[in-house]
Amino acid sequence: MRLSLERRLTVSAALLAVAAGVVPATAAHAAPATPPAAAAPTQQVTPDMEGLTKALQNTLDAGAPGALARYTGPDGVKSKTLGVQDTAYGTAMDVDSRFRIGSVSKTFSSVVLLQLVNEGRVDLDTPVNHYLPGLLPDDRITVRHLMTHRSGLSDYTNVMFADTVPGFEAVRNKVFGYQELVDLSLAEPRTTEPGVSYKYSNTNFVVVGMIIEKVTGKPVAKEYDRRIIKPLKLRDTSYVHPSTVIRGAHAHGYLHPDEDGEALVDSTEQTVSWAQTAGAVISNAADLSTFMSGLVSGKLLPARMLDQMTTVTPTDATNTRFYGLGLRRYDLSCGTQVFGHTGTVQGFYTYAFTTRDGKRSLSAMANTSNDGAANTALGGTLEAAFCGKPAAPAAGTKAAARGLAASPAPALAPAEADLPERR
After folding, report:
1. pLDDT per residue over 59-84, tens digit each?
2. Does residue 109 have an active-site annotation?
3. Computed from CA positions of residues 11, 12, 13, 15, in that sequence, does the dihedral angle turn out positive or negative?
């Protein structure tokens, strides 16, 4: 039987895979930018492992075969896994397993491009057509507009993934050229004038990849490796496009079928060519935390570039979610701000976030991608990890006298989809 309308909306919102805003072309229409958060000392917080386990269980209850979370902080590494990473063999989820990180790849691409900016080889406020002559029909679209999702370029995945499984199977083994993807976008109406408003689009980061390769004269895989993977010693991170294989121990990804009662579809092996520099990186939880904490700690970019990357504008009306240059900021219920990115690629949801000082990081993954309830549940790991349980104050302090206690932190509101919702 066909899915109900409500279920179809939820399923579609999450499927489409993978997964920012300042200095627009028309300043009069710009959303106010939020300056970078100061790297204040991290509050002494103990992660709420019971809450984190509950968030993972909620993710399984929502339909994910398995889920994991890995927290790194001053008190060491803590992790939790539930469910299975391979339904065929019943293999338990392993926190060290590799997986497809979807739109977290956008932050990798942003780092490479901002390094080129720092080297004087790219300018954020120069039109894209200066670097890629004739690519876009509007000379007002700048490099910054791409990185802040304010270009107005339509997301080609709106058309590509009209249905969950059929849409995936149509591209599973296909190899696209960058130009093909851009042409798909340009065939659709523009979503906004350049610089006017935030509209998430994978097209933006496909063009970012084109700029990287044009300016460096090298494949983006080599630039990821030379500029990020080797300096940070990320042993489980790779960009293998268009190979379909995840090497080594890895989690399998699964799609729920478009028909109720049908078996899960194993989506692990795929080219992810439809996403490329917008979402085709492979990694694991430990490497993602090393990457995010290393980024905000200045190991990849100088302070002036980090300030630009972490200058954000709102992405919705909640005033708790923001986007900078290829980097999200979430403001949690306890007041803690975390930076990172979400990822959705067929078969995987990912959260990779860190505090601004890089001292506390969390990476979480569920091995499904077309169940919005599972995505929202997985987001609850952020509250549990970063709000957690404040350390008991020293005896005799005013705080102790008041008997302060941690209150349970609510789960995040539903996360922004990295691909558009289908209706």
Report:
1. 999 999 999 999 999 999 999 999 99
2. no
3. positive
Q: E strand or H helix at 338, and its extent?
A: strand 337-345
- 3 state DSSP class of 175: coil
Element (H, E) at 92: strand 91-92
Neighbours of 91 (CB within 10 A): 15
Helices (H), 278-368: 285-296, 303-309
pLDDT in tens, 162-210: 778 999 999 999 999 999 999 999 999 999 999 999 999 999 999 999 9
pTM of the model: 0.88
> What pairs with residue 389 in β-bridges?
46
Q: Rounded distance, CA 421 to CA 418, Å?
A: 9
Do β-strands 76-86 and 66-73 pair in parallel, antiparallel, or remain unpaired? antiparallel
- On whether the CB atoms of residues 64 and 52 are closer than 8 A, the answer is no
With tokens 């952020």, the residue in question is 382
Q: 103 Cβ partners below 8 Å, 6+ apart?
A: 17, 18, 19, 202, 278, 279, 341, 342, 343, 344, 345, 418
Cβ contacts of residue 221 below 8 Å, gap of 6+? 239, 240, 241
Q: How far apart are CA 227 and CA 232, in angstroms?
A: 9
Longest C-alpha distance within the chain, in Å? 69
Among the options 4, 12, 97, 103, which is catalytic?
A: 103
Give φ, ψ of 263 to 5 degrees.
Answer: -70, 155
Q: How far apart are CA 204 and CA 176, in angstroms?
A: 16
Distances (CA, A) of 198 to 30, 99, 314: 10, 29, 8
Pull the structure tokens for residue 276: 């490329």
Per-residue tokens: 318? 């909640």
Beta bridge partners of 34: 312
| Three-state SS at 339 | strand
CB-CB neighbours of 159 under 10 Å:
14
| 5-22 residues labelled b (16+ CB within 10 A) or e (exposed) | eeebebbbbbbbbbbbbb
Average pLDDT over residues 203-219: 98
Q: CB atoms < 10 A from the CB of 257, how many? A: 16
Query: How many angstroms separate the Cα of 95 from the Cα of each of 19, 59, 84, 259, 357?
Result: 22, 16, 11, 31, 24
